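Query structure, 143 tokens:
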């Protein structure tokens, strides 16, 4: 669903397993806070794959600095915005038109006029509406 290779997914799991708290929830929060996913959730792209592509091509700024690493972990208070030169890209403009019907998660805030989003908080398990059984993932990778 997040478009990760097996090795990268395992690294995310191991990092989530080392953190305090519920491993499954930690894993989902880590996956949701990837830059390519945040760009998708803010409505700048129509898919995570497209978000990965546009991040790789340096179309987004995080706190005013260009970031081209899709797995970059955003933090609370980070500002993600479309680069000035990239504001006329048709794919981004089309995606923003469709954001109304898809909606924005509560843990994010979108300033549609300035093509800017703010991470208000880290996502809680209740904020993730995808039908996922993270306990099965934890059981599989704990072996």
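Result returned for the query:
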């Amino acid at each position: 669903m997040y478009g990760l290779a097996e090795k990268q997914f395992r690294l995310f799991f191991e990092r989530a397993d080392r953190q305090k708290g519920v491993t499954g929830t930690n894993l989902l929060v880590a996956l949701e806070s990837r830059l390519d996913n945040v760009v998708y959730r803010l409505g700048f792209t129509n898919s995570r794959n497209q978000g990965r592509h546009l991040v790789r091509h340096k179309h987004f700024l995080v706190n005013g600095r260009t970031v081209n690493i899709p797995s970059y972990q955003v933090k609370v208070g980070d500002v993600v915005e479309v680069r000035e030169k990239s504001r006329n890209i048709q794919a981004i403009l089309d995606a923003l038109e469709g954001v109304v019907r898809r909606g924005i998660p509560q843990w994010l805030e979108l300033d549609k006029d300035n093509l800017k989003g703010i991470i208000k908080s880290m996502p809680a398990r209740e904020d993730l509406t995808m039908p996922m059984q993270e306990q099965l993932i934890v059981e599989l990778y704990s072996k």
